[in-house]
Design brief:
Helix 2 (23-33) crosses helix 5 and helix 4 packs across helix 5 (81-94). By secondary structure, the protein is an alpha+beta fold. The strands form 2 sheets. It has a 4-stranded antiparallel sheet. The chain has a two-stranded parallel ribbon with strand order 1-2. The protein has helices spanning 6-9, 23-33, 39-53, 70-76, 81-94, 113-119, 146-152, 192-202, 204-209, 216-219; strands at residues 55-56, 78-79, 99-108, 122-133, 136-140, 178-186. It starts with 5 loop residues before the first helix and ends with a helix.
Length: 222
């Protein structure tokens, strides 16, 4: 095991959006950890809990900071990729695992008709989480919950704590699913103002629409 670096320990403290000190985050992390003992086992437990217990929902109020804040996403029980990544980051920090949110621009080939009309096929600031496990930074993506993946016929993303786990390039039918176009890197906290500015620029229809009662899971083509 590599000695923990100074850089890694800088990603253990709470921030405005990665509010790992919130009692709800602390309780969530503790419950998810169960009897996990090693850092890797703890990371896997937290990843699974965030991926599947919080529903993926892109129809939110993108101007509301709460949609980007870990504790608020947890309380809502749903969120989009940035919010779910913030939650996993916060839960990991609460468990003593250095973590940070990362971002990339991706091309998504499988989506609902309504979301594609509002967004197109390029998703800016798609978020993943980086966890420091045994001295190595490893990427994982807790966005799409298992129920949504089953609906869309996409294999749920597994995470082994050793290899990066990003979106599969193909779905279960062999159709192209996701391409990574540009990695924007990792941050200590969610860059809320920058993300919102770009969302307003690139997705005016989505931002203007705000939250709806529609279920993205029900819209996904099977």
């Amino acid at each position: 095991m590599e000695k923990m670096t100074r850089e890694a320990t800088d990603y253990l403290h709470a921030t405005p959006f990665i509010d790992s000190g919130d009692p709800a985050i602390q309780a969530f992390a503790q419950k998810a950890l169960g009897n996990a003992q090693t850092v890797k086992d703890k990371a896997l437990a937290l990843y699974g809990a965030v991926r599947d217990s919080v529903q993926y929902d892109p129809y939110i109020d993108f101007l509301d900071p709460a949609e980007f804040r870990a504790s608020d996403v947890l309380r809502a029980g749903k969120g989009f990729c940035v919010g779910k990544s913030a939650l996993l980051t916060a839960a990991a920090r609460a468990a003593g695992i250095p973590a940070r949110p990362g971002y990339a621009d991706v091309r998504n080939h499988l989506t609902s008709k309504r979301l594609q009309e509002q967004v197109g096929d390029t998703f800016y600031w798609h978020s993943y989480t980086e966890l420091n496990i045994d001295g190595q930074w490893v990427k994982c993506t807790p966005a799409f919950d298992k129920a949504l993946c089953q609906r869309a016929k996409i294999a749920p993303l597994d995470f082994d704590g050793v290899n990066d786990s990003l979106f599969h390039p193909f779905d279960q039918a062999g159709r192209r699913h996701m391409e990574y176009l540009q990695d924007r890197g990792a941050f200590a906290d969610v860059p809320f103002d920058t993300i919102v500015a770009d969302l307003k620029k690139f997705y005016p229809k989505l931002v203007a629409a705000g939250p709806t009662a529609a279920s993205f899971r029900d819209e996904v083509t099977t």
